[in-house]
Amino acid sequence: MNPDEIRRDFPLLKDVIYMDSASTSLTPEPVLASILEYYRGYRANVGRGVYRLSRLADDIYRNAHRKVAGFIGAEGGVVFTRNTTEAINAVAYGIKWRRGDVVVTTAAEHHSNLLPWMRLKDRGIGLKIVEPDRDGSFDPASFEAAIGDDTKLVAMTVASNVLGTALPAREVSQICRERGALLLLDGAQAVPHVPTDVGDLGCDYLCFSGHKMLGPSGTGALWMREYDLLPLLVGGGAVEELDLEGYTLKGGYEGYEAGSPDVAGGIGLGAAVDYLRHAGMEEIALHEGRLTRRLLAGLLDIEGVDVYGSVDSRERVGIISFNVAGVSPTEVAHLLDEGSDIMVRSGHHCCIPLMRHLGLPAGTVRASLYLYNTAEEVEELLAAVEEISKIA
Ligand SMILES: Cc1ncc(COP(=O)(O)O)c(C=O)c1O
């Protein structure tokens, strides 16, 4: 991975220090080029026409599904969605529930991995919440205690979008297998940053966002072990046979992508996966690990700065939440933007229950890193935070 070469593909980085990739990532030139190429050269719908442009669009869109599946170590089973939220909702809708089934999830989840399960209450589905320790870490034993015979599904994130800490996904997968429960992993903060293999994770569903991994906005994916869910939408493009008495859906992803899909988005996501593979996921993880170690150590050294989550950078992805005593998270984010052109997120990060657990009603400042960030940028952030800590 050549950081200088990579940065040339993100022209926006000439003007700002972008540290909000956990929310959405920047998009490199080759991904933009793939989208323009589609619009300029072979714009047509997919799965419908027999003419040349439509066949070409269909081939490239279909191949993008293969690329995304390969990226997570799967052979098939990938359906394109708008984002992680849609992927999780598709599972919540699509499982054939029975009254009395229970979903186990955690208090550290993004709202997108909480609300879809809370809503199932109306259908007689129970919800059990596993609580983290004081610092936001999870003991696999608390999952042992929560997962019972009535547990239909465990839904948990691989890495926290607030603390950056990894949850014990593999241990939970083992417990699920022993107890016959399904496992949904929210990979929104893991798939873009660390090599991912669904076989190794041992899950049944993996949900993630294309727009957080260099893909276009409005892209995401759902991987399912078997095409066993009821589709969220039915309609055109998804039908194999139809008479007025009933219908048969197409096999594969097409049965789950009714309506004209975001062809350009899907093609762009395929190009994003090519880009990440070329940079090397191992290298990306190492690069982010180095930056995270320095950022963590640097923030811990600044008087008046509190850092949340594990202080062991090996247990983290490149997300760090912190606060500066006497300055609200929103104010810190404003000051970083106005004074130093540094873009970070502030607030509850769509994780109100975790914020309550940590006793942080105003939330945190969150810096999140990606392959295009540099050691110099980390030093600039540390210097800027130190300045802010002095005005408090
Ligand atoms: C862990 C996690 N899950 C789910 C989501 C929701 O992702 P999206 O907004 O792409 O649906 C996010 C977004 O930040 C996230 O970090």
From TrEMBL:
It holds the Pfam family Aminotran_5. Residues 17-381 form the Aminotransferase class V domain. It is an enzyme of class 2 (transferase). The keyword Transferase applies. The keyword Transferase applies. Its cofactor is pyridoxal 5'-phosphate. It comes from the Archaea. It catalyses: (sulfur carrier)-H + L-cysteine = (sulfur carrier)-SH + L-alanine. Its EC number is 2.8.1.7. Keywords: Pyridoxal phosphate, Transferase. PANTHER family: CYSTEINE DESULFURASE, CYSTEINE DESULFURASE 1, CHLOROPLASTIC. Belongs to the class-V pyridoxal-phosphate-dependent aminotransferase family. Csd subfamily. This is cysteine desulfurase. It comes from Candidatus Methanocrinis natronophilus.
